[in-house]
Design a protein that fits this description.
Blueprint (H helix, E strand, L loop, with lengths): L1 E3 L5 E6 L12 E6 L4 H7 L4 H8 L4 H10 L4 H17 L40 H11 L5 E4 L6 H8 L3 E5 L3 H15 L2 H24 L4 H11 L7 H20 L1 H15 L5 E4 L1 E4 L2 H6 L4 H18 L8 E4 L13 E6 L14 H6 L6 H10 L19 H13 L4 H20 L3 E12 L1 E3 L2 E3 L1 H10 L3 E13 L5 E11 L15 H10 L28 H11 L5 E4 L6 H8 L3 E6 L2 H11 L4 H17 L4 H9 L12 H16 L5 H12 L30 H13 L11 E4 L13 E6 L9 H4 L1 H6 L4 H6 L5 H4 L8 H10 E14 L4 H9 L4 E9 L14 E10 L1
Parallel strand pairs: 4-5, 4-9, 5-8, 9-10, 15-16, 15-18, 16-17, 18-19
Antiparallel strand pairs: 1-2, 2-3, 6-7, 10-14, 11-12, 13-14, 19-21, 20-21
């Protein structure tokens, strides 16, 4: 640790394991440097304790003290004398002759501490990181002409951000969603132009100023609390007061995101960096509980830390320079690099996970939970299985690959005889197996004569030295890489006192990139040709309005795809017993048709109303479950009364007419109570969703079953006719019973719908997909929040929600920029099987050719297989011909 004073003196502390102090933090000897020793200090400040101990010739404090006493000198003075004597040797030639390998790289820059003075660096404390100067030094020394640079283990983004700042093209991979989010926010900070940057700073200052009052007024996020219980059980990571503030801060981020998503992203970074400091835990190597003394001494207030981080971010945003190039996250898992088109990389600069027992996902579990990336304990284990095995807790019996390399086999054999934990040999084996797969992925993207720079450290387990650098070198040599140089960066001690090293390995690739084999023929090719020739969904009986399974009509919904079209798309593109995702599921038409035809179907939907309806379709209902919920709802309506505030808030929601104009006063009371019931008891099971979806259906319409005055069943047009009492429960019982009476096909496979923004990080369960078949919102067409406003209100939306939440919907966001689809396409490529297919059903208008816009983005990850247009000017739905300016439907087909 380096300490600078305001006076001319400077200090360097040196750690000694046997230093007479009770706390490990205090086992340090402090050496003072006067102004005349400034040049000595400049060299010494860059060295680790281990390296300084070697220079002064004493590894133990006891020996150092004895030597100083023999010279009748204070210990600090004795050390300073030796350092002065060795100074000429230290500065000769490379200034670091005690390090093998002549280089201008400053070792301290290979550590997180080396970047402390840099903007963006302290936004999140990721101790495994290195500094921007480290990346610049590598480029200047070993790849001065590189233009396209890849970091397959980006961490907090130092490599891609530095590369972009230098005006080069940066690509990166990062499997941890927390770090993905952090890098993405940093990129936004760097690429914002001055006008938008000023607005962002103003917004963040306003958030910081009002933070305390805002957190008091906002309600905690109930969903986040539910996932905490599911994921962590009885584990307590926060005191009660802080925990409630954390839940409130999540709700605050969501609220701000509706009107200012950019500011919400930066606020979320400030919050995530404050979670552990304000918790009962401490990140000291690994994440652990604080001791009672640490809890007392290191007490940090959650809101204060958020404000501190926000203010730090504001200062950085105001002083950073604008960056023109935008780093690209090409995939999450570096092992999946062969799935994407060749990147033509000149240089790789990276620091893979060290084989040091650290569990990177366990250490960030609180932040991952806050970002809604953890929903169950299974998610943590799934993350560990996907990542490079680097810690004991990462070891999974499901990883059965072997590296089959003599150097690895030799180490594994020794560890099986000596390791104190039987998981250690498998950890070593899995680590090199995973790294082997990463190295295999390089061959598709690296140009011949390109450079690979790897920062890595070795390890020791059970007294057995694991020379990670040497083994990785051998693995790369097997793939045609030549070792150009090995630079010792730092020395350190293991827990048992053995010396370990951090080195920089420099390789040159001698082999031209290997072409990626693509499927020459698609198994669905003939079926697709037939579909285009026949347009079967426009022919009888498939063109009938009520074609298909009765549950397609569970709840009317404007913008719903025709079931027959969903049926033929599934039939055309899905293999037998396949797995499909619809990232814009709506009321579940595509997932439901897939489920009916024997496929495992998933769907994402951002609208709470549509999510409930879709969930009711893709699962199997239970009669008793429905009856139980109906009974609870009936009791609730009979027991409670509505408040004047509820009625006033309902009256304020008025589009075609006010809500009060739709219902007789006693019917309105029952609806308001039912609304409150479902807000307090969000439907979770298929049966609960069926009851809620049935109620959504009867909210308005022109039939006797409807609760409203006469209106349209699809869109709640202005009501007409007399006010008459329409009791809720009898009509709901009747609708639920009709749905329970329908039969499912024998081939039906239950699916799952997520309340999920498709542009955000996808749940881990979504993988190994055969197809993604979807129909995103058409450009300049139906505004889903207005077409379904009464049902959204019932699901909990109030007037302010209608003003802000639609701004998060893709139908609004794509009007600003089609790059909103980038994260969807990137994740689609990674979650699909190698020969998987993506099918977009799109709308074409005189204002926008959606297939052209999406094709430009898709080419980063996919091959354009086909674009087909279908005329739909003659079509209508339920008597409504509201397609906006849509004149044709397009089918954009993408594959590997």
């Amino acid at each position: 640790m380096v300490v600078s004073s305001k006076m001319s003196q400077r200090f360097k502390t040196i750690y000694f394991q046997d230093y007479p102090a009770t706390s490990p933090k205090k086992k340090n000897l402090k050496i003072a440097f006067s102004e005349r020793d400034e040049s000595v200090y400049d060299v010494i400040s860059k060295l680790s304790s281990q390296e300084i101990r070697e220079l002064i010739g004493h590894g133990r404090y006891k020996d150092l003290k004895s030597a100083a006493e023999r010279e009748y000198l204070p210990i600090s003075t004795y050390c300073l004398r030796i350092l002065r004597e060795k100074f000429p040797l230290m500065v000769s030639e490379s200034q670091q002759p005690y390090l093998p390998g002549v280089t201008t790289i400053n070792p301290i820059h290979a550590t997180f501490k080396g970047g402390h003075a840099e903007p963006l660096h302290l936004w999140y404390p990721f101790l495994e990181g290195y500094s921007p100067e480290f990346v610049e030094s590598i480029l200047n020394n070993f790849a001065p002409n590189a233009n396209r640079v890849l970091d397959p283990f980006a961490g907090m983004g130092t490599t891609p951000l530095t590369v972009a700042r230098l005006g080069k093209t940066a690509f990166y991979c990062e499997i941890n969603p927390l770090l993905q989010h952090l890098v993405n926010v940093k990129i936004k900070a760097l690429t914002l132009k001055s006008d938008k940057r000023s607005k962002l700073v103003e917004a963040l200052k306003n958030i910081s100023k009002k933070l305390f009052l805002t957190l008091e007024d906002i309600a905690p996020d109930v969903g986040l609390h539910i996932t905490y219980d599911k994921t962590f059980g009885e584990s307590k990571f926060f005191d009660d007061v802080t925990y409630e503030k954390v839940l409130k801060s999540r709700a605050l981020v969501d609220y701000i995101a509706c009107s200012n998503p950019l500011a919400a992203d930066f606020l979320s970074v400030a919050i995530t960096s404050s979670l552990v400091p304000a918790s009962l835990l401490k990140r000291a190597g690994d994440l652990r509980y604080k001791t009672p003394k640490e809890l007392e001494k290191e007490k940090i207030l959650f809101e204060e830390n958020i404000k501190k981080q926000l203010n730090r971010m504001i200062i950085d945003i105001e002083r950073i320079e604008y960056v023109y190039t935008h780093p690209i996250l090409v995939c999450e898992d570096a092992k999946n690099l062969p799935l994407i088109p060749p990147l033509e990389i000149d240089t790789i600069i990276t620091s893979p996970p060290y084989l040091n027992g650290t569990n990177y996902f366990r250490n960030t579990k609180i932040e991952l939970w806050f970002l809604r990336c953890l929903n169950s304990p299974k998610d943590l284990s799934s993350f560990r299985e996907k990542s490079v095995t680097a810690g004991i807790n990462d070891v999974s019996q499901r990883k059965n690959g072997k590296c089959n390399h003599p150097a690895v086999d030799s180490i594994v054999t020794k560890l099986k005889e000596n390791a104190y934990d039987p998981r250690i040999p498998k950890m070593i084996e899995d680590y090199f197996y995973d790294m082997n797969r990463v190295f295999d992925s390089f061959k598709h993207h690296l140009k011949k004569d390109s450079t690979v720079a790897i920062d890595i450290g070795d390890s020791i387990y059970g007294g057995i030295h694991v020379p990670t650098d040497r083994i990785l070198t051998e693995l790369l040599k097997d793939r045609g890489f030549n070792l150009k140089g090995e630079i010792l960066l730092r020395k350190r001690l293991s827990r048992n006192g053995s010396q370990l090293c951090q080195v920089l390995l420099i390789f040159t690739n001698t082999i031209a990139p290997k072409a990626i084999k693509r499927e020459s023929r698609f198994i669905w090719g003939n079926r697709w040709i037939k579909f285009k020739q026949e347009i079967p969904h426009q022919k009888h009986p498939f063109s009938k309005r009520n074609w298909g399974h009765p549950l397609h009509s569970l709840c009317s919904y404007q913008g719903k795809m025709k079931p027959s079209l969903a049926y033929f798309l599934v039939k055309t593109f899905m293999p037998e017993n396949g797995t499909v995702l619809d990232p814009f599921a709506g009321v579940g038409t595509i997932p439901f048709e897939a489920a009916l035809n024997g496929h495992r179907a998933y769907g994402f939907e951002i609208s709470p109303a549509a999510k409930i309806i879709a969930s009711a379709k893709v699962g199997k209902t239970d009669v008793k479950g429905c009856q139980f919920l109906l009974s609870k709802l009936d009791d609730y309506i009979k027991t409670y009364d509505v408040s004047e505030r509820e009625i006033d808030k309902a009256a304020s929601v008025a589009f075609n007419k006010s809500i009060l104009d739709y219902y007789e006063k006693n019917t309105l009371k029952e609806i308001l109570l039912a609304r409150r019931f479902f807000i307090e008891n969000p439907p979770a099971s298929t049966s609960e969703c069926l009851v809620a979806a049935s109620l959504l259906h009867i909210l308005h319409g022109n039939r006797p079953y409807a609760l409203s005055r006469k209106s349209h069943s699809i869109t709640p047009f202005s009501p007409s006719g007399p006010f008459e009492y329409r009791p809720l429960m009898p009509r709901l019982h009747e609708k639920v019973q009709r749905s329970l009476d329908v039969e499912y096909s024998d081939s039906f496979v239950e699916g799952k719908i997520y309340h999920q923004d498709a542009t955000k990080w996808w749940p881990l369960e979504i993988e190994n997909l055969d197809a993604i078949i979807t129909s995103p919102p058409f450009f300049d067409s139906t505004r889903f929040h207005l077409a379904n406003w009464l049902r959204l209100w019932f699901c909990g939306w109030d007037l302010e929600d209608f003003r802000s939440k639609p701004l998060m919907f893709v139908d609004e966001r794509q009007k600003m920029d089609f790059s909103v689809y980038e994260s969807i396409l990137r994740q689609a490529r990674e979650r699909l099987k190698r020969n998987g297919i993506v099918v977009f059903h799109l709308g074409k208008s005189n204002k926008c050719n959606m297939s052209d816009e999406l094709s430009k983005i898709a080419l980063k990850w996919f091959k354009i297989v086909d674009i087909f247009s279908e005329n739909v000017m003659h079509c209508e739905s339920h008597g409504i011909r509201d397609k906006g300016t849509v004149e044709a439907h397009q089918y954009l087909v993408l594959s590997y």
